[in-house]
From TrEMBL:
One Gene Ontology term, aspect cellular component: cytoplasm
Catalyzed reaction equations: D-arabinose 5-phosphate + phosphoenolpyruvate + H2O = 3-deoxy-alpha-D-manno-2-octulosonate-8-phosphate + phosphate
Family under the similarity heading: Belongs to the KdsA family.
Ranges in coiled-coil conformation: none
EC number: 2.5.1.55
GO terms assigned for molecular function: 3-deoxy-8-phosphooctulonate synthase activity
Full protein name: 2-dehydro-3-deoxyphosphooctonate aldolase
Pathway note: Bacterial outer membrane biogenesis; lipopolysaccharide biosynthesis; Carbohydrate biosynthesis; 3-deoxy-D-manno-octulosonate biosynthesis; 3-deoxy-D-manno-octulosonate from D-ribulose 5-phosphate: step 2/3
Gene name of the encoded protein: kdsA
Domain of life, per lineage: Bacteria
InterPro entries: Aldolase_TIM, DAHP1/KDSA, KDO8P_synthase
Location, primary (coarse class): cytoplasm
Amino acid sequence: MQLLGHPIGNDRRLFLIAGPCVLESERLALEVAEALAAMAERLGILVIFKASFDKANRTSGASFRGPGLEEGLGILARVRAETGLPVLTDVHETWQVAPVAQVADVLQTPALLARQTDLIAAVARSGRPVNIKKGQFMAPGDMGQVLDKAMRAATEAGLDADRFLLCERGSSFGYNNLVNDMRGLAIMADTGAPVVFDATHSVQLPGGQGDRSGGERRFVPLLSRAAIACGIAGLFLETHPDPDNALSDGPNSWPLAQLEPLVERLLALDALVKQAPDSER
């Protein structure tokens, strides 16, 4: 599959989706994006900047949601123009798809909306690549049906149906906890779609702090290594200069200053794994 002019796949070099959970300000977005652009150039990898203009699924109605559609798209457009990075953001409703697709290079559907047929069809008809997150409540094999919905909608619209990514972000494990079954990465790869592993949301503790979600940031490298050992196309890492004071998902975000050393080590593992026969991954 070609993603923004780059060949990607579960047997190709790892690419990265990274950025703050939510657009807190233009200044923060540019700070993170400039660091990511410099890292992408040094490491020679595809990096896609990710941030949300609206977090519609916050634990508490009092939590910060973001700047909203108009201001958020303006910030993303400036990030793209000033850093050269492609940008990704998520859409929660069908009416958001058209304006977002005019700015974002890649669209994303939230995990909690993975079975919303109208939303999946709308992003598929946008013509943009789409990162489709697996619901925390879904078996990995169920994502084959979601992919079929997207491909059917694209084909019916006369569009390329080979532009969908499937993203693992953990499965519900009792209350306020997630777990990763690494077999799921192989099961989703059996669909033929490139698989992305969301390492930072996988260590989230949903609603774990009562009025907000918690997280176990220290497990991000461990789960990233495990996923890469399975053979994946891309890695999703939310990052922030000061995670402890981030306005969303701070407990599971990786510190920006520590991102490049981590990615460098993960790329070395990725190269080693992808030299092995498929039967050993």
